[in-house]
Specification:
With 290 residues, this protein is an all-alpha fold. It folds into two domains: 50 residues; 233 residues, MetI-like (MetI-like fold), CATH 1.10.3720. Helix content is 76%, strand content 0%. It is globular.
Length: 290
């Protein structure tokens, strides 16, 4: 055994492969260290500058006028919450039902193949293209920006995420479970909704939370649809303030309080998205352990 090991170590092909293996491991490790370093640098800068901007006024006052002191982000926070909530309520049933259709009939239907192809295209489509699409279809026709247009734009981003996640999760359900339900006389729609979907509900919820995290920080679609509003407004049929656009505009402004508010808003979005990702992975891990 030792002779065989020594012969392998003296083999030039083995030594060359071992050297390439070590070089590959080293380069992979360095790439990981470099990526983590810049990520920690960004997060550290965000924490330092963002925490200094957090105060009660941020959650109680609307965005300030140019040249004025103080101000907050309550109108942008409420506007983002309303639009993301509306988009979630729109995209969740559509995405789940479309995912169920693909899982049940997608392999045997040309329409299912086309739906999967369109879903993959929408997953990789730039968000600004979706914003321009909603602008051309809705905003240009009604001749005003609105929160509903913003919700429609970001819901088009969330739908393919929910569809793909639901389809993949339902594909993990054992065939024996479906066959047992069919053997008991259950119709196909009950098997899909009450057996397959219930078995992977944690994974589907994970997909919904990931979709919400994806759309929470989208800026480009809202520039063409919801635009912005300096004042507090709960009317979804009017231009509506939102955190991504406010951060985009305030970060490039010459006013120091605007830039501070931009850092605070960026910190809020970052921690919100981080919390949603942690929650989604926690749900998925709990389901995997069961």
């Amino acid at each position: 055994m030792q002779n065989s090991t020594m012969q392998s170590a003296q083999n030039p092909v083995y030594r060359r492969r071992l050297m390439m293996h070590r070089v590959g491991i080293f380069l992979s490790t360095m790439a990981m260290v470099l990526g983590v370093f810049f990520l920690m640098w960004i997060l550290f800068t965000l924490l330092i500058k963002g925490f200094s901007a957090i105060n009660w006024a941020m959650f109680s006052e609307s965005t300030p006028a140019p040249g004025s002191d103080g101000g907050g982000l309550v109108n942008a926070i409420v506007g983002s919450f309303m639009m993301v909530t509306s988009a979630t309520l729109i995209s969740t049933p559509i995405g789940i039902l479309a995912g169920i259709y693909l899982a049940e009939y997608g392999d045997k239907s040309w329409f299912g193949s086309i739906t999967r192809f369109v879903t993959d295209v929408m997953l990789s489509a730039p968000s600004i293209v979706i914003g321009l699409f909603v602008y051309a279809i809705y905003v240009a026709n009604v001749k005003h920006f609105s929160g509903w247009a913003g919700s429609a734009a970001i819901s088009l981003i969330a739908i393919p995420v929910v569809v793909r996640t639901t389809d993949n999760m339902l594909g993990l359900v054992p065939a024996s479970l479906r066959e047992a339900a069919f053997a008991l006389g259950a119709p196909r729609w009950k098997v899909a909704l009450l057996v397959r979907l219930r078995a992977v509900k944690a994974g589907v919820v994970t997909g919904i939370l990931l979709a919400v995290a994806r759309i929470s920080g989208e800026t480009a679609p809202l520039l063409f649809t919801a635009l912005n509003n300096q004042f507090f407004s709960g009317n979804m049929n009017k231009p509506m303030a939102n955190l991504p656009v406010v951060i985009y505009q305030f970060a490039m402004s010459p006013y120091e309080n605007w830039r501070n508010l931009a850092w605070g808003g960026a910190l809020l979005i970052t921690f919100s998205v981080l919390g949603l990702n942690i929650l989604s992975r926690t749900l998925f891990n709990q389901k995997s352990q069961h």
